[in-house]
Amino acid sequence: MTLRIKLSGIFGAVLFLLTIGFGIWIALQGKPYGMVLFTVHKLTAIGATVLAALFCFSILKNASAGGKVTALVIVAVISVIALLATGALMSINNDPVASYLRIIHSVSSISLAISGGGAIFFLRNILMNK
Ligand code: HEM
Prior knowledge:
- The protein is mainly alpha-helical.
- Helix content is 87%, strand content 0%.
- The chain is elongated.
- Protoporphyrin IX containing FE is lined by residues 19-20, 23-24, 26-27, 33, 41-42, 45, 48-49, 83-84, 87-88, 90-91, 102, 105-106, 109, 112.
């Protein structure tokens, strides 16, 4: 595994954990959302997504993934889309729908952690065994 791929995996995981931490912090503080915390949460989320995608595609460029990895990547992509959409809607929405968005946002975080973590785990194994 090249250093670049390794670093994108490690920093991606660190940024993902920071995103969860800042997300919980924002949720505990409630509305109106603190601009600094909200911006940091969005930036770490985007950074984690970009680095995780870089990690996955760098490996997939040189190795073919099985159905298991493909399914996990599809679930991870759907979870990211749900996180981006619900995150944006929560920041502009102030009605009771926001509590449903919050549930979808939290559930998507968990499904992303499981699917993204699983995909990265299996991709790492593919690369190690090459
Ligand atoms: C990898 C992507 C992301 C992950 C894993 C993530 C994770 C989380 C988590 C775990 C929470 C705490 C939920 C709770 O305790 O109720 C949270 C809250 C929040 N996130 Fe995200 N998030 C992501 C992306 C985003 C994006 C892109 C936005 C904005 C566009 C956003 C906006 C928010 C907001 C506004 C809250 C506070 C919700 C509330 O009022 O309870 N998130 N996030």
